[in-house]
Design goal:
By secondary structure, this protein is an alpha+beta fold. It contains 10 helices and 16 strands.
């Protein structure tokens, strides 16, 4: 009798452990969608008033153009946002992003020195925009990033790639891996600096907004240090930043210009006012003055013709996601920045929120890691998704944790 009881108990424990390990059903991940109640102060409007304001005519010169409000993810203006284009030096934004990731992970250090190789100097000391690195010199990572992002240093990008990636090819591999992780499905990188490579390097406007959003949202300290400086003095030579909005559009703080004869004039720009952050892409503009006028007009229109109404405060806990194989059955989800309802100024429209993730999430999970998304639907506009981060660490669970979670699920 006792042997039988022991056998039954063993089977039950094994089953409970399996139940906890596999989320109570199957082992694979699936899309999980969880509606989020709106704050009580937000009510559905009696009548929708969400007519897109007429955009500025200056933007018509750009074959590719996109303006997005990061607070809601809403697209305010778009022309061919998924059409691949040659980015030229806008490519260097990805080089900076990869460096920011490595700095945050301790794989690079700002004061780390990287020697200018003879090969890099020979190829790049007279080619395109550069920071005039001396042959055999050893600038710091901090120096290189300042040159790359503010005077578009081709030489600086290659030196950083060789020193931090082991080789230019190794660095380009890191760039494409980052693009994959960010969901940049219409982009590919073949160089660290955007120099002409027979079309091997290409991006889309939507993808560049994803990159800008990740750069600003995940690494704000690095963004504000290395992006949007008025220029650089290096090796006795002073050069200005050619950003067409710095000092001219209130709140403008970057991000990167680009030009080649093949690509024409491109710009990935951003500005922030009163907590609102807009990101803009212009590509293929024929002349630099036209690019400048379009950039200024689009940003000013975005701030003047549209407004943000708060939905969720930065750091607010939105909900939870289920976890597989962890010390806890769930992990809290927080909004890393404020979430807003973006509408034409004076307008109104219904809004809905829902959590979306591939679940269950698999432990271990680090606090602050982006693990889910908040889908924001405003009126008839296309839904946008904003990142949600883990509110706490979730360690990998041991047998006792799995047993406890299995019992809880059995009786829930």
């Amino acid at each position: 009798m006792n042997k039988g009881l022991i056998a039954i108990s063993a089977v039950s424990v094994a089953g409970l452990l399996a139940l906890a390990s596999h989320g109570g059903a199957s082992t694979g991940t699936a899309a999980v969608v969880v509606p989020v109640p709106l704050p009580q102060k937000i009510s559905a409007p009696a009548a929708s008033m969400d007519v897109t304001p007429p955009p500025p005519p200056e933007a018509d010169v750009a074959p590719v153009a996109l303006l997005v409000d990061l607070g809601s993810g809403r697209t305010l203006y778009a022309r061919n946002p998924d059409q691949p284009f040659l980015p030229a030096s806008v490519t260097k934004t990805m080089t900076a992003f990869v460096a920011f990731e490595m700095l945050a992970n301790g794989q690079l250090h700002p004061d780390q020195r990287i020697k200018v190789s003879d090969a890099a100097w020979k190829e790049w000391h007279t080619k395109g925009s550069r920071m005039f690195l001396a042959q055999g010199s050893a600038p710091t990572v901090d120096d290189l990033l300042m040159g790359i992002m503010n005077v578009s240093a081709n030489d600086g990008a290659v030196v950083l790639a060789e020193g931090a990636g082991g080789s230019v090819a190794g660095w380009v591999g890191k760039m494409n891996d980052a693009a994959r992780r960010l969901g940049m499905t219409h982009s590919h990188f073949g160089t660290p600096n955007g120099w002409m490579d027979k079309g091997n390097t290409y991006v889309s406007a939507h993808d560049m907004v994803k990159l800008a959003e990740a750069m600003i949202g995940r690494y704000p300290a690095y963004y504000h240090r290395y992006v949007g400086r008025p220029g650089l003095t290096w090796n006795g030579i002073t050069q200005p930043n050619h950003d067409p909005t710095l000092g001219l559009v209130p709140g403008a703080d970057g991000i990167k210009t680009g030009f080649t004869n093949e690509a024409h004039y491109n710009f990935l720009g951003s500005a922030q006012r009163d907590g609102r952050r807009l990101v803009m892409v212009l590509a293929g503009v024929p002349k630099p003055k036209e690019r400048s006028k379009a950039a200024k007009a689009l940003l000013e229109w975005g701030f003047a013709a549209w407004e943000d109404k708060p939905l969720v405060a930065a750091g607010a806990r939105i909900g939870v996601a289920k976890v597989q194989g962890g010390a806890s059955e769930t992990v809290g989800l927080i909004a890393p920045r404020g979430v807003f309802n973006t509408l034409p100024r004076g307008g109104n429209a219904p809004v809905s929120l829902q959590i979306v993730y591939k679940g269950p999430l698999v432990a271990p999970i680090a606090k602050g890691a982006p693990v889910a998304e908040l889908e924001v639907r405003i009126g008839d506009a296309a839904p946008a998704r904003l990142p949600l981060n883990a509110a706490e660490d979730v360690a990998a669970g041991g047998p006792i944790d799995r047993l406890r979670i299995g019992f809880a699920r059995l009786f829930s």
